[in-house]
Specification:
alpha+beta, five-stranded mixed sheet
C-alpha cells in the first residue's frame, strides 16, 4: 500500500473512533468544552496510532494503547464516576476491536485483502453498532455508578473473546500466506463464536447489571417507603389520641354552653368550636388514612412555600390498603414537591393541585405541579431525575405497580410548564 492510501485510511480510522466515542458519551456531562475535548481525543489517537501489519502482537499493542487513551480521556473529560468512565472506555474499545477481526476474517473468506475496503466496511459497522447500542443496548447515565466487580465480571469474558478472535484472525492470515485454503465453515464459526460472542457478552452483562441495579434501587425505595409508613402510623396514633382529647373538649364545651345564659359566652364557645374544627379536620376526604397523610404533607409544603389546593372526596377508597394509599398519594405528592423545589421556582410560583373522586365506577386522581423541562417521547419518568436515583428512583414505578395490580391506569403529560399525573382504579 502506498503512503497516500495509508494516510487516507489512517485519517478515516481515527475519525471513526473519535466520532463514535464522542457520540457514545455525548449525553453525559463533560468537564471541558466539547470541541476542545474532541480535539484532545483526536490528538491522542493520532500520536499513539500504530500501523497494523495484521500480526497478533501489533493488534494487541494497538488496542491496549487505544484502551489507555480512551480511559484517560474519559476519566479527565467526563464528569462521571471514574469506574463508570473506565467501563465505557473498555466497552467501546472491545466493541471497536471486534469488528476489525470479524470483517477481516469474512473478507479473507472471499479472497479480499485490501486494507482500504477493510477500513471502509469496519468503519460502517462500527458507526452503526455504536448508534444501536447507545440507543438500545447500554445505559448512558451521568448519575450511574459501577462497582469494580461489575466491570471485571462484565469486561473480562468479552475481552477474552476479543483476544481469541484476534488470535484466530492471525492464525487464518498465516494459513492464507502459506497458500492453503481455510475451511469456510471453520471461518464462519470463528467469526460468530469469538467475534459476535464478545458483543453478546458485552450486551448481556450490561443488561444483567442494569436489571440487578434496578432491583436494588426498587428494594431500597420500598424500604424507604415502609419506614415512612411506620412513621406515619406513629403520627396517626398520636393524631387519634389528640382526636380523643378534642372529643372530651367538645363535651366540656357542650356542658358549658348548656349552663351559660350569657350570649357573649355562647359566642366565645362557638368561636372555640370553629377553631377546633379547623385545627382537627383540615381535610375531609372520606378516608382517615388519607386525611392524616395530607395533614402531614401539608406541613411540609407550607415549609417550602408551595400553594396546596385539595379537592378530594372518596366513599370507596377502602378498596386500597393503608399502605397502598400511602404509596400512591405520598409518592405523587413527594414528586410534585421535588419538582417545585428543584426547578428553583420563586415561592409565589410554586403550587400543587390535587383533585379526586369517584367517576363512573372508578377512583380517579389528578395531580398538577410546575414542570419547566421538555418531556421527549422517549423520556422515562419512571426513572428518577435526582442526583441520587438509588434512593428515590422508583416512586412512580411503585405507583404503577399498585395501579396495575388493581387493573387501573396511570398516565402523565407535560404541557404549558405543568406536569399532570392521572391515575384511576375501578371500584369493582
Amino acid at each position: 500500500m502506498n503512503f497516500s492510501a495509508f494516510s487516507w485510511t489512517t485519517v478515516l480510522y481515527i475519525a471513526v473512533f473519535t466520532s463514535c466515542f464522542a457520540y457514545l458519551t455525548w449525553p453525559l456531562p463533560w468537564k471541558l468544552s466539547r470541541p476542545l475535548a474532541i480535539a484532545i481525543l483526536i490528538c491522542g489517537l493520532a500520536v499513539t496510532y500504530i500501523r497494523s501489519d495484521s500480526s497478533l502482537h501489533t493488534l494487541l499493542v494497538r488496542y491496549l494503547i487505544f484502551e489507555l487513551v480512551f480511559v484517560l480521556w474519559a476519566v479527565l473529560v467526563l464528569n462521571v464516576q471514574r469506574l463508570y468512565a473506565v467501563y465505557l472506555a473498555t466497552f467501546f474499545t472491545v466493541l471497536m476491536g471486534v469488528w476489525v477481526s470479524c470483517i477481516d476474517i469474512l473478507l479473507s473468506l472471499f479472497g479480499i485483502h485490501d486494507r482500504t475496503i477493510l477500513t471502509l466496511v469496519t468503519g460502517f459497522c462500527r458507526v452503526l453498532s455504536v448508534f444501536i447500542i447507545r440507543n438500545h443496548g447500554i445505559r448512558i447515565d451521568g448519575t450511574r455508578t459501577m462497582p469494580l466487580h461489575q466491570i471485571l465480571l462484565g469486561m473480562m469474558p468479552a475481552a477474552a473473546c476479543f483476544v481469541a478472535n484476534l488470535e484466530m484472525m492471525d492464525f487464518l492470515s498465516s494459513v492464507s500466506q502459506s497458500g492453503r485454503a481455510a475451511n469456510p465453515f471453520f471461518v464462519l464459526l470463528s467469526v460468530f463464536f469469538f467475534g459476535f460472542t464478545a458483543i453478546a457478552v458485552l450486551l448481556s452483562s450490561e443488561s444483567y447489571f442494569t436489571a440487578v441495579q434496578a432491583q436494588q434501587e426498587k428494594e431500597r425505595a420500598q424500604q424507604q417507603l415502609q419506614a415512612q409508613y411506620r412513621l406515619f402510623l406513629q403520627e396517626k396514633d398520636a393524631d387519634d389520641r389528640l382526636r380523643a382529647l378534642h372529643h372530651d373538649l367538645k363535651n366540656h364545651l357542650d356542658t358549658l354552653e348548656a349552663m351559660s345564659h350569657e350570649q357573649s359566652i355562647r359566642n366565645y364557645i362557638d368561636n372555640l368550636r370553629e377553631a377546633e374544627a379547623r385545627t382537627l379536620h383540615p381535610f375531609q376526604t372520606g378516608n382517615s388514612t388519607l386525611d392524616a397523610l395530607l395533614l402531614t404533607k401539608q406541613e411540609m409544603m407550607e415549609q417550602e412555600g408551595i400553594d396546596f389546593s385539595c379537592l378530594v372526596h372518596f366513599t370507596k377508597l377502602d378498596i386500597l390498603s393503608p399502605m397502598e394509599i400511602c404509596t400512591l398519594f405520598a409518592n405523587g405528592i413527594d414528586n410534585a414537591v421535588e419538582a417545585n423545589c428543584n426547578n428553583e421556582l420563586p415561592r409565589d410560583q410554586r403550587f400543587l393541585r390535587l383533585s379526586g373522586g369517584e367517576v363512573n365506577g372508578n377512583i380517579v386522581v389528578r395531580m398538577e405541579n410546575p414542570f419547566l423541562h421538555t418531556l421527549t417521547p422517549k423520556q422515562d419518568l419512571l426513572r428518577s431525575s435526582k442526583p441520587d436515583p438509588s434512593a428515590h428512583g422508583y416512586g412512580m414505578s411503585n405507583m404503577q405497580d399498585i395501579v396495575s395490580a388493581h387493573n387501573g391506569t396511570l398516565t402523565y403529560e407535560a404541557k404549558d410548564n405543568t406536569f399532570t399525573l392521572y391515575w384511576s382504579i375501578p371500584v369493582t
